[in-house]
Amino acid sequence: MKWMKRISIWIIVSLSLQCLGLFYLDHYFLATDSKVITKQVVENKSNKLKNIDIKIPENAQNILVSYDAKYLSYFEDGELKIVNCKDGKVKTIDSEDGTKISFSEWLPDRNRMLLVEKNSNDESSNLILYSYDVLKSEKLKVKELSSGGINSEVQDIQLSTLTGVTYVNVSNNGNKNKIYRIDRMGDITKINTIPNLVSNIALVRHEDKLVYEGLVYNKIYVVGLQEPISFNGAEKLTLIGTDNDDDVYIGELKNNLVSKVYHGKISQDTNQWKVLTLQNPVGKNDIFVSPSGKVYQNDALKGVLTDINSGSQTSYVGELSQLYTKGIVSILNHKISFVPFK
Fold first, then answer.
1. Mean pLDDT across the stretch 90-97?
2. How far apart are CA 231 and CA 38, in angstroms?
3. Which of 243, 290, 235, 230 is nearest to 259 (CA)?
């Protein structure tokens, strides 16, 4: 009889444990009606600063705004100035002894600049590339580009933070262009271009492919390819830019006005590229492409920027200077204003 009593006790204990386990699973582990305590967080908008209108000197030149419009730069009397667009504070960027800053360019997705300092004598000039971190106020030497003619000047810089590759377009008094490629390790190579004179350059950022425009005949080339990019019936083309999805944007020129915009990937046949036809052709300086791939057409007389695809319009006052991530930068009476997209 004792063994039957023991078995009964073990059965009762086992069933009790199973019931407790099922109760836990049903009411806690697998519960669908768990109580959640929430608390609403209200943002103090008064502490969220907005960009202020920036007053610049009358002799300010080469006015540029960073990708997010937090900073603005310009040259005044040969000195590079950087302005904090939240509070208007101005800082002068010093050059090294015996040099002057001759070129600057904001990175496409960082609050950093690439600077070129020029050290000239009567026969030649050295162009030295630096990077400048605005937040750290730190300037670092990247590479000495060349020892060229005294008239050598940097015309454009294209950089991809994804690949770490930088391309520098150097013009020698309009007689010839030299394009240098600098990789992440700092190694520098000279790029051979088909035409000697190059105007616009744009970088396909994920693939390290440079697209460039010949200055004389308005043909578009890709570094490493012999044949130019072409479209049926289009005689003259101009390079507009690239987007974050590696699409290249090319305008068709008729009477020096952009009438169509082609866009697609350089790996595709151009017959597969998409085409945007402009109802009112405009100068190539009035066509913009955003990093997200939106194409804008500017009407300088009306002060209106139009998204060609959606038709949405953003009005501004003064002269359109450039676009930033969320809007337009305009200039009127030496005052910089920031206008969000509609």
1. 94
2. 59
3. 235
Q: Which candidate, 319, 312, 314, 315, places its Cα nearest to that of 336?
A: 319
The tally of CA atoms less than 13 A away on the side-chain side of residue 286 is 23
Tracing tokens 């139009």 back to the chain, one arrives at 306
- CA dihedral for 90, 96, 100, 104, sign (positive or negative): negative
The tokens of 342 are what?
């509609």
Q: Print the SS3 string covering 27-53.
A: HHHCCCCCCCCCCCCCCCHHHCCCCCC
pTM of the model: 0.82
Residue 212 φ/ψ, nearest 5 degrees: -140, 155
- From residue 168, how far is each of 40, 182, 227, 318 by CA, in Å? 51, 8, 22, 32
* Distances in whole angstroms, Cα of residue 243 to Cα of each of 13, 200, 207, 240, 292: 69, 15, 12, 10, 6
280: enclosing H helix or E strand: strand 274-282
Which residues partner with 274 through β-bridges?
Answer: 263
At 296-337, the pLDDT tens digits run 999 999 999 999 999 999 999 999 999 999 999 999 999 999
Closest by CA to 219, choosing from 175, 183, 181, 250, is 250
pLDDT tens across 6-20, in order? 666 656 655 554 444
Sign of the CA dihedral running 216, 220, 222, 228: negative
Reference 218, options 235, 236, 234; nearest CA is 236
Predicted confidence (pLDDT) per residue in 270-282, tens digit: 999 999 999 899 9
Q: Hey, is 286 helix, strand or coil? A: helix
d(CA 8, CA 10): 5
Complete DSSP assignment for 95-149: PPTT-EEEEEEE-SSSSEEEEEEEEE-SS-EEEEEEEEETTTTEEEEEEEEEEE-
Exposed/middle/buried for residue 249 (C-beta within 10 Å: 0-12, 13-18, 19+): buried
Q: List the alpha helices (DSSP H) in the chain.
A: 2-24
How many residues are present in the chain?
Answer: 342
